[in-house]
């Protein structure tokens, strides 16, 4: 791991979070980010064509001489999932955090890209969301899968990535031709159900039964997201729900590590 570069990028992201929070007059919406680096030539990227979609982009499709994919996770402040834990529809705090985080990711990507370009490197920033096929509901650049390749965590049965800071937050990514040492992927498990067949709290919390331990109906889930986006249309585009991750064992950390420590 290139500690110096990791600290530099983490600090840059923290600076952009601070700028953004001040300029938008927000209360603190985010906790400290996590950053991971993937080798653009990692063979796992090719496997995303099977795991996600045959049309999933490779880093080299986005930047011809790509060397590294920088991925970061912005964990929400804990108050946000706490406010979203009750009722069928998403809370306004959850919807606003989603909208603000999407804007923040654009701000971070622009700032980081400018900094890397000043150092003589090329970049390609990826949009935070809404770049998916509306029929299949599958993206050609799946941030959560890219984040897995970049060693930021592992999937839970809720189909989201659980990081060392949990799963309540959002992911951003940038492809660059700067060479950076990769983040090592871990073999350890992050989901209690995958680890010892317990938990399934996310399944019990799903408000539509779209989520089951062994399957996920993305269309049923998306209908719920659209229902919420109608409710919050005056805020911006908030196709959200998040009930399955709002206060569950993996919301804020890797629960398997906690279990092993106890
Ligand atoms: S809530 Fe429990 S079962 Fe669901 S993903 Fe998190 S740890 Fe796994
Ligand atoms: S986002 Fe909502 S509808 Fe979709 S799986 Fe989670 S709880 Fe269920």
Provide a descriptive summary of the structure in words.
By secondary structure, the protein is an alpha+beta fold. The protein has one domain (3-261). It is built from 10 helices and 8 strands. The strands form 3 sheets. Strands 1-2-8-3 form a 4-stranded antiparallel beta sheet, sandwiched between helices. Helix 1 (3-23) crosses helix 5. The longest helix is centred in the middle third of the chain and has 27 residues, at 92-118. The protein is globular and about 50 Å long. The two termini are 29 Å apart. One iron/sulfur cluster binds at residues 156-158, 191-193, 199-202, 248-250, 255.
> What is the global morphology?
globular
Average of the residue pLDDT scores: 93
Order of helices and strands: HEHHEHHEEEHEEEHHHH
Approximately how much helix is present in the residues?
Answer: 25-40%
Rg to the nearest angstrom?
A: 18 Å
DSSP summary, beta strand count: 8
- Strand order in space, largest sheet: 1-2-8-3
Runs with pLDDT <50, length 5+?
none
List of distinct ligands in this structure: iron/sulfur cluster
Number of domains: 1
Give the strand content: 5-15%
SS element count, helices: 10
Which features characterize this protein?
single chain; alpha+beta; four-stranded antiparallel β-sheet; 13% strand; globular
């Amino acid at each position: 791991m290139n500690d110096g570069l990791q600290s530099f990028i983490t600090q840059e992201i923290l600076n952009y979070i601070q700028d953004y929070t001040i300029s938008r007059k927000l209360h603190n919406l985010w906790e400290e980010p996590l950053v991971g680096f993937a080798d653009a030539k990692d063979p796992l990227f090719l496997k995303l064509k099977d795991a996600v979609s045959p049309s999933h982009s490779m880093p080299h499709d986005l930047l011809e001489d790509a060397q590294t994919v920088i991925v970061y996770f912005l964990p929400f402040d804990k108050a946000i999932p706490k406010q979203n834990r009750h009722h069928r529809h998403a809370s306004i705090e959850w919807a606003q955090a989603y909208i603000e985080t999407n804007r923040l990711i654009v701000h971070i990507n622009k700032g980081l890209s400018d900094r890397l370009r000043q150092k003589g490197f090329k970049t390609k920033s990826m949009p935070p969301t809404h770049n998916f096929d509306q029929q299949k509901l599958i993206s050609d650049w799946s941030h959560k899968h890219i984040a897995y390749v970049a060693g930021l965590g592992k999937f839970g049965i809720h189909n989201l990535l659980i990081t060392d800071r949990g799963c309540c937050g959002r992911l951003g990514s940038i492809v660059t031709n700067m060479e950076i040492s990769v983040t090592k992927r871990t073999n350890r498990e992050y989901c209690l159900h995958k680890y010892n067949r317990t938990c399934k709290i996310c399944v019990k919390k799903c408000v539509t039964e779209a989520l089951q331990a062994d399957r996920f109906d993305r269309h049923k889930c998306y209908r719920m997201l659209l229902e919420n986006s109608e409710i919050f249309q005056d805020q911006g585009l908030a196709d959200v729900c998040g009930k399955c991750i709002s206060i569950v064992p993996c919301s804020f950390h890797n629960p398997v590590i906690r279990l092993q420590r106890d």
